[in-house]
Structure formats: C-alpha cells, structure tokens
Amino acid sequence: MALCVVWLFAATASPAAPLADSQTQSASPVELTPAEQVFLRAHPVITLGTGDSWDPYVIVGQDGAVTGYDADVLDRIAALTGLRVRLLPGDWRERQEQARSRAIDGLSTGAVHPERAEHLSFSAPYIRLHKYLLVPKGNPLSLGARDDLAGRTIALHRGNLFDEKVASGFPHAGILRFDTVDEIIDAVTTGGADATFDNGSLLYRANRLGRPFLQFAFDLNEPLDLVFAVRNDWPEAIAIIDKGLTAMGEAERTRLQARWFLSPLNTPTGTDEIVLSDEERSFLDRLGPIRLCIDPDWMPFDGLTADGRSQGIMSDLLKLALERLGHTTQLVRTASWSETLQLAHDGHCDIVSAVAITPERAEYLDFTGSLLSEPMVVVVREDARFEGTLDAHADQRFVMVAGHAGIDMLRRAHPALAIETVPDVVTAMRAVSLGHVFGYIDLLPTVAYAAREHGILNVKVAGDLPQRYELAIGVRKGLPLLHSSLSRAVAAVPAREIRTVRDRWISVRYEQPIDLLRFWPWALALALAVLGVLVWNHHLQRLNAALRAANTRIERLIITDGLTGLYNRRHFQERLPSEWQRAAREQRTLHLLLADIDHFKEYNDHYGHPAGDEVLRQIGALLIQLTRRAGDLAFRTGGEEFAVMFTEANADNAERLRVAVEALGIEHVASDTAPVVTLSIGFLMACPADIRNGDPPLTDWDEIYTRADALLYQAKARGRNQVVSAVWRAAEADQPTGVAATLSARQKGAG
Questions:
Q1: Helix, strand or coil for residue 367?
Q2: Which residue has the higher pLDDT, 225 or 195?
Q3: Which of 141, 386, 421, 557 has the most CB atoms less than 10 A away?
Q4: Between these two residues, 544 and 127, which has the higher pLDDT value?
Q5: Cα(496)–Cα(128) distance, integer angstroms
Q6: What are residue 231's DSSP bridge partners?
Q7: Among candidate residues 43, 44, 47, 45, the one with its CA nearest the CA of residue 88
Q8: CA nearest to 51, candidates 274, 165, 246, 202
Q9: Which pLDDT band, with edges at 50, 70 and 90, does 128 fall under?
C-alpha cells in the first residue's frame, strides 16, 4: 500500500486566512527590554530573503503577494511584538549572498549552518521537520532503504546546505545539482534523476502545479529545524522574534501547520477527527452532497449493486474517508467508464472514484494521495504462451477497457503494440477465452474477480508488467477546498483499514457454495498442464534465448541516456573505477574530459526546454563522433553536464570539441560569454602509479573525478568557453598524494 508514504503534505490551493479563534485574539503583546524598544523604533520593518518556490512555507501569488506558513508565523509575531518582517522571495543562492553582504537583513526558511553563523544569528526553531526520499509515483526502482541509493542519482537544489550535508551520507550515489525546485521536480518526474530529498515542499509544489506524479519512499531520519536568521550585529531582532515565538506557543504553531501541512506518517491510526480550516469547513457546509462518479463495471474496485448503489474496494475506502469529514455523496449514474471520464471532463462530477493519476487527467482533475497501488498483468488463453515481454508479441492483438489509463502508459512504452478497446471487463475476458485476441491487460484483482464471477476458466495470468496503477480520488478542478479537505481525509485512513477492505473484497468470492459440476474443467486443465510441461521443455532453449536478448535490451536501456543516446551517469560511475584499474594494470594514461554547456539555464529560460533538448542532442551527436575509437566512452552525467573517457588523447581533442560546439552556431542571446552556445571543459590526463607490487589505491579513481571537476570549475571561473587541462600522476605506494604536473588554458582557439 502506498498511502503511508505518498502524501506528506496536502495541497491547499487558497491562501490561509489569519487565525480568528478566541485564544489567538486574546494573546497579550510581549514585554520588550528598553534596548529592544529602541531597536524596534529604529527598525519597524526588517527584510528576510527566502526561496521563491518553497510551497507551502512561502507561496508567491501571481500578483506577487506572499502567503504560506512562514508568512502566517511572522504575522503573529508582528501582532505580538510590533516587529514587522517582510519576506523577499527569489533565487535562494542570491538571497544567501545578499544576507552575507547585508543587502537584506537575514533569511527565512533556512537551517542553522556554520557558514551562515559567520554573519547571521538564529532564532529558536519555528517548525521541526524530517527529510524524506522523494521518488516517482509508484516507486519504480523500489527504493526502500539508504543502501538502495548506491549507484542511483539524487537531485539537489544548488545552495541548499542542509541537503548537501545529507547527501554526504550517500557516497555511492551520483549527485545532480539544479538551479530551481521546478527543475528538480521535472528531473525526478521524467527519470532524469532517480530521487531527491524533501521535507514536503517539493511534493506540495508539484501537486500545486498540477504534476502529482511524485511520492515519498521512506524517512531519511534526518531531522530539520527551520529558523529565522538575522544579521548578527542585531541581537535585539533575534530576541524579539524569539519572544514572539514563545508567546505564540507550540499549540498555536500546530494550528497554523494544520492549515498548510498534513503528515499521515505521524497520524495516529484510527483517528476519526481531522483538522480542517474554517474556510474548508464553511465550504463543505455550503456544498451539500458531493456529486460522485464511478466506473460502473470495474469490480472489485468499483461497480453498481442491483438497486443502483456504488460498491467495491474504492467505494468502501471513500466511505471511510468521508466519515472523517462528516459528509455524504450523491451518485451520478453512468453507463461506462468512458462516459464517467467525459462527465468529469465537462464538470458534472465533483469527485471521481478509483481514478489513475495521469498527466492527461490532471488537466481537469486534482488528485488526493494514492489509496491503492496495483500491478498490471497479462491474461492469455490456457493454451497460449507469453514470452515474458510485450515487445515479443508486437504482431499480436491485445484488448483493454476503453478509458483505461494503462492504455496510454503501454502505448508510450511499446509503440508497436496493437491495443484495441472494448466497453467492459467481461467483453475483454471473453475475447481472450474465445481466441479472438491474444491477450487482455488489466489489474490482477479485476481479472481474478471477473474469471470467478462469470466462470471464464480457460484463461490464465501469464505475467506481471513493470507498470503499476496508482488509484486515487479525482477532484474537479476549481474546487481547491474540497480537494484539500478530501486529501486530508484520505491520508487519515490507516493503512491497516485499507488492507482489511482490500482483502475482504478479494477473498469474498472464494466463499461460494461448492458446485462439483464446475470442477471438471479444472481436471481437464490439469491434464493439459502436464502435457504443457512436456511441450515447454521443447521450447525452453528458445525461451532462454529470448530472455537473454530481452535482458540485453533492458541493460542497454538502464545505462543509456534516452535524450542523447550517450551513456548515463549511472554507467559513468560504474566505468570510471574499472577504467582506472585497467589503465593502472596496463601502465597507461587515463584521459578524462568533463564539460558543461555555458549558461544553459538561461538558454532554457529564453528559448524553452524543447530547444534546450535539441542542443543536448546535437552536442551528444558530436560526442558520439568523437568517441568512435574502441575504448573511448561518452556520457551525459547531468542536465547540461557531459563526460568523456579516452584511451589516447591530448588537450587538442578537448579543444576540437570546444571549437566544434561553437561552430554549430546555435544562437544564444541570453549568454554573456558568446552569442552562440559554448562549452567549458576540464581535461585531466591521469597517470597511474607503478602497481607491480600491488593494485593502486581504490580511492584514486575518486580523486581523478575531483581533480577533473576542479579543472572544469577553473574554466568557468576564467570566463567560460575554455579548456583547462592538467597532468596528474597518482601517488606511489609510499606517497600520500599525487602532484599536478602541467596546467594550461585555451579559449576560442588561442594558444
């Protein structure tokens, strides 16, 4: 079940109003010292910098107005102390630098860090959080523990010092750094990175942007205290803020958090009451019964009873959630799932039960957290053989129920696959049973229920597919308060109750009176199975060959960057140590080139991401041409980052690449380096130590990368569009470090 980790923060689409309960209104102003009163008269307003996409701590509206948890806390401090704090959102790295130079007065939404302590003083924590691992919906890599991150890539926000500290605990993972939170969301959603760290801000923003395709995998056990930081020559300011936080008290901060945050990982099981804001409660009171649309024929998930009431797993789970809201539904009857989706699209349903989360549906629906996560399976006739992958059956026909979200998933993954649609599950199962089509694709509970209910006995589940189906409740766009309320209610349903409901529906159909006449097909099936074993042995060799070919294709996909055709960062991390060991054994130099596209973020901002993708493809093509010699390898190691390993090369090779990229003549008016796209390059010629008396130190390969990265940094610091190269000889067995022998720089063909 995905509930416990999918939805840490429920998206609240409308700004929270100030607290208005009697306890808040009656809070007394704090008592300030004479020095603090003098400071307050001199500085009635101070400015704290913060990030511009850190929802729900800081939410920037289209009109520039700032709302969110931080704003609410600071408003209460202002009411209690008289000190007004203006939040200035923007690029987080820029805001940190402004705080360092005292162009602004301090920072909000930050953690205590030694680097900041040099010029800032810190308040008491105003919220305590935990860091979680954020992954694509369905957790396709099954990341469940820290060790699972070995060989994976983690996306980080440049300038986030706390996340850099957490990342140091994953030495065997690749780190990809991005300039904005939205770029991280894109990277993890599209597979450009395997995971990222989050305390709920990224997930909240992803859902607020209509991209609910992420979930939490596990708690990193990294507590994070957020504090307010003010320039350290203003001790009175920190003292006033701390007095305001003390006067607020933990209970009031908890009520503020209930407006913006929701943490089911900390929700007690069996909690019947959830915290709703005044706006949410008022909206539900005005709304009346919620118009509910379901799939009328998708048991055991959703369906209709003989008297027209909803039934099934999702119907029962929705009732559990609505009990916590104290609300009811009114069923909108439809004849098919396609009609249900059309009514939802046209705004005639307030909520849709048992809906899969897809980008297409996100255009007209918001989604609660996932309630169920189910595997997709392939059903074929008993006498048919499934080769293990859909690609092996590209010449055969498959059916799925019209409107099934899995259709688009599978067509994207297998464009050659022939998928036809039918109106309902029974029609699909009978088409397979009668041999009209080769296979039917759906969820396992649906297949098992239909086979038992309708006596379709000559079919079998031939295999699972890697695609998983995340089932949630869809809420009509334009009802943000219903979405936030229902999201809280869904998250409050304990996982044990979900399991109980699911198991009850899946197992109930086995409790049928025994009908011996129905068992003769099973006896026949058993005899056919024995015969099938004999036939299977005859085809085993061919099956193994197909399996090896499939594994080869999968392995190639795992190590290849889909956009450029180059090897990816994961393969780079695997090959660098092995190539270094091989170079050491053969007593030859390993040549490592690292390159960054200059001002690539500005290019994407100006020309758009499709144009940026085309730049990456063209540079990837150049690198493929440059590495045609056996033993040369080219990689895309990050968004705009590349690496090349040569067996034989010199700085001229790096310079030719720089010139070739510039010669592409790709216009880049947003660059202050050149009018066209350019590269900065670090080129390291690494010479192994004499290893006749043993292997080279295992850490040497890591130092190679560090030194090459330092050269790349120098190329960028010197003005970009340059090659900076060096020779490094690894330490002999009795020497602790190597020594850089030469250093040179080339720019635009000079020198």
A1: strand
A2: 195
A3: 386
A4: 127
A5: 27
A6: 120
A7: 47
A8: 202
A9: confident
pLDDT score at 655: 92
Radius of gyration of the chain (CA): 30
Angle, helix 313-325 to helix 480-491, in steps of 10 degrees: 110
Q: If you search the block for the tokens 């999968």, which residue do you land on?
A: 554
Which amino acid is present at 380?
V
Residue range 369-391: average pLDDT?
A: 82
Dist. CA 224–CA 127, nearest whole Å: 8
The length of the chain is 751
Other C-beta atoms within 10 Å of 482: how many? 21
What's the one-letter identity of residue 263?
S
Instruction: Please identify which residue in the block is written with the tokens 């009668």.
Output: 434
Strand partners, 135: 215
Question: In this structure, how many other beta carbons lie within 10 angstroms of the beta carbon of residue 299?
Answer: 20
Query: How far apart (Å, rounded) are the C-alpha atoms in residues 721 and 742?
Result: 20
The DSSP H or E segment spanning 684 is strand 679-687
Sheet holding 297-298, edge to edge: 297-298, 302-304, 310-311
* H/E run at residue 488: helix 480-491
Residue 42: which region, alpha, beta or left (left: phi > 0; alpha: psi -120 to 50)?
A: alpha
Strand 297-298 relative to strand 302-304: parallel, antiparallel, unpaired?
antiparallel
Residue range 707-751, pLDDT digits in tens: 999 999 999 999 999 999 999 887 543 333 333 333 334 343 333
pLDDT per residue over 278-333, tens digit each?
Answer: 777 888 888 888 899 998 888 888 888 888 888 888 888 888 888 888 888 889 99
Average pLDDT of every residue of the chain:
78
b/e burial code for range 568-586 (CB count within 10 A of at least 16 → b): bbbbbbebbbebbbebbee
Q: Could you tell me how far CA 332 lies from the centroid of its own chain?
A: 34
pTM over 0.90: no
The closest alpha carbon to 89, from 44, 43, 47, belongs to 47
What is the structure's pLDDT at 737?
A: 35
C-alpha distances in angstroms, 248 versus 87, 256, 467? 20, 11, 48
- Tell me: pLDDT of 52 over 70: yes
DSSP class per residue in 180-246: SHHHHHHHHHHTSSSEEEESSHHHHHHHHTT---EEEEEEEEEEEEEEEEEETT-HHHHHHHHHHHH
Task: Report whether the peptide linkage leading into residue 114 is cis, meaning its omega lies within 30 degrees of zero.
Answer: no
Q: Between these two residues, 358 and 723, which has the higher pLDDT value?
A: 723
- Residue 558 CA to residue 411 CA, distance in Å, equals 20
Decide if pLDDT at 27 tops 60. Answer: no
Look up tokens 């229920």; give the residue. Answer: 449
Confidence of residue 228 (pLDDT cuts 50, 70, 90): very high
Closest CA to 615 of 682, 681, 676, 561: 676
